[in-house]
């Protein structure tokens, strides 16, 4: 399994727009074989940093998702929404390999 961690720098005045964008992806990602672990929005501390975590069985599965989702009308609409609202200033992604508790631990 591979987990993608997205770190967003968001416009603090447009958090409602960012939340609307995030809700779209929580629903969209499972269509492509991923598991969304949620978005984590600013609460205390920096008011312009948000995180998202989602997993795929492998990096190859993630790459397939990227290729297929690029032509999906709902995904394109989500990207367009973010561009039009300018709720995201920038983002970066990192891939991590989760270490999970063994069954029964």
Q: Could you describe the 3D structure shown?
A:
By secondary structure, the chain is α+β, with helices and mostly antiparallel strands. The chain has one domain: Alpha-Beta Plaits (2-Layer Sandwich), CATH 3.30.70.100. The chain contains three helices and four strands; from the N terminus they run βαββααβ. Strands 2-3-1-4 form a four-stranded antiparallel beta sheet. β2 and β3 (49-56) form a beta hairpin. The longest helix has 14 residues, at 15-28. It starts with a strand and ends in a 9-residue tail after the last strand.
Output the keywords:
single chain; 105 residues; NIPSNAP family protein; Alpha-Beta Plaits; 3 helices; alpha+beta
Mean pLDDT: 94
H/E series: EHEEHHE
Q: Gyration radius, to the nearest Å?
A: 14 Å
Bulk shape: globular
Distance N to C terminus = 20 Å
Strand order of the largest sheet: 2-3-1-4
Structural class call reads: alpha+beta
Q: How is this structure best summarized?
A:
The chain has 105 residues and is of the alpha+beta class.
How are the secondary structure elements laid out?
Layout: E1 2-10, H1 15-28, E2 35-40, E3 49-56, H2 59-69, H3 73-85, E4 88-96
Antiparallel strand pairs: 1-3, 1-4, 2-3
């Amino acid at each position: 399994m591979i987990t993608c961690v997205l770190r967003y720098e968001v416009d603090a005045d447009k958090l409602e727009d960012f939340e609307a964008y995030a809700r779209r992806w929580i629903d969209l990602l499972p269509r492509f074989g991923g598991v969304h672990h949620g978005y984590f929005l600013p609460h205390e501390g920096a008011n312009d940093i948000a995180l998202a975590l989602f997993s795929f069985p492998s990096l190859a599965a993630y790459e397939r998702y990227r290729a297929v989702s690029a032509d999906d009308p709902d995904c394109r609409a989500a990207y367009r929404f973010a561009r039009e609202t300018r709720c995201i200033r920038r983002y970066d992604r990192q891939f991590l390999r989760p270490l999970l508790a063994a069954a029964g631990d």
